[in-house]
TrEMBL record:
<protein>
    <submittedName>
        <fullName>Dienelactone hydrolase family protein</fullName>
    </submittedName>
</protein>
<dbReference type="InterPro" id="IPR002925">
    <property type="entry name" value="Dienelactn_hydro"/>
</dbReference>
<keyword id="KW-0378">Hydrolase</keyword>
<dbReference type="Pfam" id="PF01738">
    <property type="entry name" value="DLH"/>
</dbReference>
<dbReference type="InterPro" id="IPR029058">
    <property type="entry name" value="AB_hydrolase_fold"/>
</dbReference>
<dbReference type="InterPro" id="IPR051049">
    <property type="entry name" value="Dienelactone_hydrolase-like"/>
</dbReference>
<dbReference type="GO" id="GO:0016787">
    <property type="term" value="F:hydrolase activity"/>
</dbReference>
<feature type="domain" description="Dienelactone hydrolase">
    <location>
        <begin position="15"/>
        <end position="231"/>
    </location>
</feature>
Amino acid sequence: MSEIEIAATDGSGSFGAYVATPKTTPAGVVVMIQEIFGVNATMRQLSDWVAEMGFIAISPDLFWRQEKGVQLDPDAGQAQWDRAFKLMQGMDQDKAIEDLKATIVHARTMPGSNGKVATMGFCLGGRLAYMAAARTDADANISYYGVGIDGLLGEAGSIKAPLILHIAEKDKFVPPEAQAKILDGLKGREQVAAYVYPGVDHAFARMGGHAWDARAATIANGRSAELLARVLG
């Protein structure tokens, strides 16, 4: 496990990224896209899990344009949530996609990489994973409980690589009408698979979190692992 720096494509500086490496390389790379809490303990744990599956995991700091090295704890009180929402609202998501593009370019040629790259995002990162599917050349994309995707359906025609959406039925940030709009808007798109997990809330796959649901997370993670194995090798 290590920390690296990646140069931003707009010349404004560089951003950090956490890297977890599997026992055997060369391997495909998974760009792990943060929640609103930064590249925190959860994102590092998830990255380590991806490495245990045999892939290189790289989790870029997408809040760096506001503040570098943010690591918040969603279970540590309202102040952490308030700060997280402020950072999310202050994020230029178009710039974040450019940073993800830079990460994908780096991932294709980094030591140990076999040149194939997927994205996997959670919450805010789930939204960005959908945007990555529409705007980047990633070989596959996985979105866990992405927020606001119902407002991005106009970009669905640009999705060329496989995309999985994991949707929580009881997600307080993605109400039933938004879920219905997403499912209807993506219907018939061969490269997109959307799954709704009954009875679970937002962040059901956050290991050890308050909304953790072992059964739903295991099913979702199995689907993710199958796609990664098929596409990344």
